[in-house]
What does this fold into?
Amino acid sequence: MATTTAVAPLRNLRAYLEESLPRIANAGLAAHVTPERQVRVALTMATRQPKLADCTPESFLMALIEAGQLGLEPGGVLGQAYLVPYGKTVQFIPGYRGLVDLCLRAGDVASVDARAVYDGDTFDYAFGLTEKLEHVPCGESAPEKLTHVYVIFRLKDGGHKFDVMTRGEVEAIRKRSQAKNSGPWVTDYTAMSLKSVVKRGVKLLRMSPELGAAVAKDDSVDIGAPIQLSNLDPTYGEPEEPEPKDPGATSKGIEAQLEGAEGTNGTQAEQNPPDPGKAVEQAPAAPEEHPAPDPPLSDAEQQEAQAPEQGEAEQSSQYVSPGQVSYLKRVAVQFGVKWENVMLQVNMTYGVERVEELTIEQQVKMLAWVKAQVPAKEEGAGDE
It folds into this structure.
C-alpha cells in the first residue's frame, strides 16, 4: 500500500507534464531546449526526490518552463539548475554551472574559472591598483574545510575581473535562503558556495537580459519573495500565486520588469488604483493612469513618477515604462535603499538623469544593485 501511495503522485505528475507538452513548447524556451528533454530530466529528478511529486503539478510546470526559458537544464549531469520543493510549491533555482553558462553566452566573457579554497591551501589575494590572486591547493576537498571561494572572469578583450568571498560571507547568504537547511545547500554545499561568488561577480560585468533574470530570480528565492519569469501563451491562463507580504512584489509586476511586458503594467494599475483626491493634491497635472507607488514615497518622488516627459508614450519598448519605474521605487523602499542613492547610482553608471532613460537591461541591473545592498544592511543589524 505504501508503495502504491508513493507512486501515484509521480504517475499523476508524469501524465500532467506529458499533456502539457504543447504548452511548454509555446512558452518561449531557449532555442537549444526541447520540451521532451526538459520533461524527461525533470521526471528523473522527481523520481529521486519524491517531495517534488507531492507539490502542485502547476508549480512544477512553471518551474520547468522558467528553467527552459533561460536555456538551463534542471538536475542531470550538467548541474545547471535545481527544482526545490517549498511546501507544496516547486521553485526553480539557477545553479553554479547555469550562471557560468549564461555568462559565456553573454558574449563578453571568454572563460569563467570558479574555485574553492580549503584549510591548508596556500592562498593570497589583494584588490586595488596592485591586485593579485594566488592559490596553491593542498588536496583537501571536504566542504567543512572550505575557507574561501573565488571566481575569475577572463574577457574577450584580454582583460579580466575577479572576486573573492570568505566562508563567513557565504554562510550569511545561506542563512538568508529559504532552502538553508534543505536542497542544494545540504547536498551540494561547495557548488552553492561557488554559485554565490559567481553571482556576486557577474555584477562586475555587462549582464545579458537572461543573466540578469537568472540573478534576480535567485535573489528573490534567497530573500523569500519568489518570482516567476514565465511568459506563457495567454490562452492557457496564468497560475494562481500566493498573497505576497508586499503588495508590490507580485510575479506579474516582476515579469513586466524583466520582460518589458506592457500588458502587465495594465494589470498592476488595476490592482493598485490611484486615489483621485490624493493625486490632485500631490501633483495636479499628473495623468491618472500612473498611480503613486505603494508604499508611499516623498512628494518630489511621487511627482517625478507621475509626470513623465511629453512624448514618452512614443518611446521604443526597449526603454522602461512609468509602471516599471514605480516598481523599481517600490523595491527600493522594500529593501530600505534611499531613492536619492538609486538616482546617484543611475547617474554615475549610465550618465542619465531620469530612470525613464534606462533600457530594460539597465533597469534589470539596477534591480540587482538595489538588492545587493541588503547584505550590508542586515550585517549592520546583527545576526538574527
The chain is about 50% helix and 15% strand. The first helix runs from residue 2 to 19. Confidence is low (pLDDT under 50) at residues 223-294, 304-317, 375-384. The radius of gyration is 22 Å.
